[in-house]
């Protein structure tokens, strides 16, 4: 097992990465001190791993909430259902929420924990690659709104994160690829050598080589942790982690959160960010081709839905990163370094959207 710590003073917590963590009873028992536990999972994950978690937790009062699977269920209505269970079972402020699942489960369970009685502890047990490298780390919790993704949420750091690489064996290929999109994002925004390592090792990652996956997860979490430590509440630098996301969220919202996995949309968003960076003179055409080639080798789409540039722009304007009516974008100075800006040529954005989304 490898462990790294997100250093946030009294909100610091460890991220544990390794094989078989759910079978090591002492790990969860040491992290979860509460006697009353709300186990939040979904219909796909719970049959596979909920029993192992219950066994590891030992003699506690554990109440399950098993949610439908899918991004469309990350809503206020679903959160309300979870609040109802907490209240009906008279959970107090010393209770704990345990999120067992992918990004939807983790985001929603964390949001509930942030709000219930003004905040109770929660532990993340992410079961998708995307959740292990991104959404389980950093304390962003949220639910979606029909007007946009993650518009209703709170910053609430978990007590601990357990990324068991063994659970990735049951992950569908499409979900594995979705997680690889977020891993590629980290190389693009912060570490050119890691991007080049991904180019060399993508076949190993696709075949789920344990050592390759462990390295990719660790380095991704390390990059994110370092940024979160410097800017926990996204007042500046943390927005770099949104590379590809403003474009990707527009794809998800325009298609009703059912046609695209989050990571698939982010992957196309990374390509749009690279393409716009080329239009602004930062990247070369060869750089953009490298990004596209790596996304394809990761099993990801490189074509956006033909929703039209105007529709895509409308969804981008309700993104959380809009300031003063101006869409702030994360773009690339070169492969391995990103920057945040609202000062760009509108023509470059317009032509990028038209190329990928249609006129």
- Total domain units: 2
**What is the CATH topology of the largest domain?**
Dehydroquinate synthase-like, alpha domain
The major pleated sheet works out as: 7 strands, mixed
CATH architecture of the largest domain: Up-down Bundle
Secondary-structure content class: alpha/beta
* Helix share, percent: 40-55%
Structural Rg: 20 Å
Query: Any idea what the CATH superfamily of the largest domain is called?
Result: Dehydroquinate synthase-like - alpha domain
Total helix count? 13
Strand content: 15-25%
Overall 3D geometry? globular
The neighbouring-strand order within the major sheet is 1-2-9-6-5-3-4
Give the topology string: H per helix, E per strand. Answer: EEHEHEHEHEHEEEHHHHHHHEEEEH
Average pLDDT score: 95
Q: What brief labels describe this structure?
A:
Dehydroquinate synthase-like, alpha domain; Rossmann fold; 20% strand; single chain; 7-stranded mixed sheet; 359 residues
Descriptive account of the structure:
This protein is an alpha/beta fold and about 350 residues long. It folds into two domains: about 1-170, Rossmann fold (3-Layer(aba) Sandwich); about 175-355, Dehydroquinate synthase-like, alpha domain, CATH 1.20.1090.10. Helix content is about 45%, strand content about 20%. The chain has 13 helices and 13 strands. The protein has helices spanning about 25-30, 45-55, 75-90, 105-115, 130-135, 175-190, 190-205, 210-230, 245-255, 260-280, 285-295, 310-315, 345-355; strands spanning about 1-5, 15-20, 35-40, 60-65, 95-100, 120-125, 140-145, 150-155, 160-165, 320-325, 325, 330-335, 335-340. The protein has a seven-stranded mixed sheet, with helices on both faces. Strands 7-8 form a two-stranded antiparallel sheet. Strands 10-11 form a two-stranded antiparallel sheet. The protein is globular, with a radius of gyration of 20 Å. The mean pLDDT is about 95.
């Amino acid at each position: 097992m490898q462990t790294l710590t997100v250093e946030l003073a009294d909100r610091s917590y460890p991220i544990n990465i390794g094989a078989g963590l759910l079978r090591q009873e002492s790990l969860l028992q040491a992290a979860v001190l509460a006697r009353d536990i709300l186990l939040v999972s979904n219909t796909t994950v719970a049959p596979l791993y909920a029993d192992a978690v219950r066994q590891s937790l030992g003699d506690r009062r554990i109440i399950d909430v098993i949610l439908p699977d899918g991004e469309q269920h990350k809503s206020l209505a679903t959160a309300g259902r979870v609040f109802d269970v907490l209240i009906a079972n008279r959970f107090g402020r010393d209770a704990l929420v345990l999120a067992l699942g992918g990004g939807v489960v983790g985001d929603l369970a964390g949001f509930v924990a942030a709000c219930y009685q003004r905040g109770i502890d929660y532990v993340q047990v992410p079961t998708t690659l995307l959740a292990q490298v991104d959404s389980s780390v950093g304390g962003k919790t949220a639910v979606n709104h029909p007007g946009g993704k993650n518009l209703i949420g709170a910053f609430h750091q978990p007590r601990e994160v357990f990324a068991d690489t063994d659970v990735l064996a049951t992950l569908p290929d499409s979900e594995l690829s979705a997680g690889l999109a977020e891993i590629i994002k980290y190389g693009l925004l912060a570490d050119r050598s890691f991007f080049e390592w991904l180019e060399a090792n993508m076949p190993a990652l696709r075949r789920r080589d344990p050592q390759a996956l462990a390295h990719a997860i660790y380095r991704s979490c390390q990059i994110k942790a370092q940024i979160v430590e410097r800017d926990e509440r996204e007042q500046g630098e943390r927005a770099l982690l949104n590379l590809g996301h403003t474009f990707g969220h527009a794809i998800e919202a325009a298609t009703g959160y059912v046609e695209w996995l989050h990571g698939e949309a982010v992957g196309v968003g990374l390509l749009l960010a690279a393409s716009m960076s080329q239009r602004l003179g930062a990247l070369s055409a060869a750089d953009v081709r490298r990004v596209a080639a790596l996304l394809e080798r990761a099993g990801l789409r490189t074509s956006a839905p033909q929703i039209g540039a105007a529709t895509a722009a409308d969804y981008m304007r309700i993104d959380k990163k809009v300031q003063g009516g101006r869409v702030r974008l994360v773009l690339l100075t070169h492969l391995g370094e990103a920057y945040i800006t609202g000062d760009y040529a509108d023509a470059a954005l317009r032509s990028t959207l038209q190329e990928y989304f249609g006129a």
